[in-house]
Amino acid sequence: MADSLPKTYDDLPDKRRYWPATPNSADEGLGMLRLLTPEIVANAARTQIQTGERVCLNWDLEKLNPPGFGRKPFAHHVKWVSEGHAFDDEYHFNPQQSSQWDGLRHHNAPAPTPDDPNRRVFYGGTTSTEILDPSSTRIGIAHWAKKGIAGRGVLIDYASYVQRTKGVTVNALTRHTVSLDDVLTIAKECNITFEPGDILFLRVGLPTTWDNMTDEEKVKYSQQETPNHAGLEQSERVVRFLWDQHFAAVAGDAVSFEVYPPVEKEWDLHHFLLAGWGLPIGEMFDLEGLKESVELWERIPMTVHPEVYLKYTTRNSFTYTNGDYEGVIHSQQDQ
User: Fold this and answer.
1) Which of 98, 184, 210, 234 is most exposed, with the fewest beta carbons within 10 Å of its own?
2) Which Pfam families match (predicted)?
């Protein structure tokens, strides 16, 4: 699959739109997850999986609480389904409140035409009318759910790196910008060579930031019309880097993955990645336990979580599992 992609960013006929699949097809719905072929996943498992230690990547469902952007907060109700015999649990929540993948229906991008200079479309040219049509499954996340997301991942622990090298504690709810230079430096320190189909994880420390805030500060954050979020820089260099590596997905513990509001609006990563290339963006993953476990796993056993978990391999690598599918993640760690 990777062999069929334009090799470099410069090879893209349209830098902002790579829509190779047939409209309304399963391949279109997968986007860049098409890179996670059985061969890619099997190679990761065969070459990396060694032990069975696990750690959960899911943040608590009720965080952020209260959520930003005017979203409704999480609610959990326990009810008798058979009085005196059995309970049911009911959950009401917006997936954007906590750990989640931004699907291809989440964010569109400008696609002006002479007749409609304000035109905006989603990946593949999908329109908002199609998305609001309950009978339409075009680019729906069900295409991802059929097999899950699994593959080799690389963890760039930026929060630990800047604390160790620059004495900086990242406030993940500011416009703290993660530079591409720092990402590349961390990868070099860890002897990470990116491979086609990798899943890139970036840690900026959001759970720590949130847990250290007062209730008043959390309410103030939720009431902001335009909240600030730390994340990856927007630039042509970053866009070029993300394409040239042929990542299957990117993710992190930041609210927006990229710095928000965008510092360089021309290079808004949600426009390029979601609407342009079909590259999933994971947000608000809890990477704190992972960071600690990577440092200590040889001495301290990990906690098992059934939803999404990791299986450790070596001190610098561990496997990412979603459902019954396994892959591998390499980690940057404190020196």
Assistant:
1) 184
2) Cyclase (PF04199)
| Domain architecture of the chain: domains with CATH | 2-59+99-103+147-331 (3.50.30)
Q: Which long-range contacts (CB under 8 A, 24 or more apart) does 19-22 make?
A: 19/123, 19/124, 19/125, 19/278, 21/124
DSSP state letters, 169-236: ---TTS--EE-HHHHHHHHHHTT----TT-EEEEE--HHHHHHTS-HHHHHHHHT-SS--B-EEPPSH
Write out pLDDT tens, residues 285-304: 999 887 877 666 433 222 22
Distance CA(76)–CA(208), nearest Å, equals 24
Tell me the per-residue pLDDT of 56-68, one tens digit each, with 9 for 90 and over.
888 888 888 888 8
Output the pTM of the full model.
Answer: 0.85
Rounded CA gap, 333 and 159, in Å? 10
DSSP for 252-283? ESSSSSB-BS-SSGGG-HHIIIIIII---EEE
Helix (H, G, I), strand (E, B) or coil at 2: helix
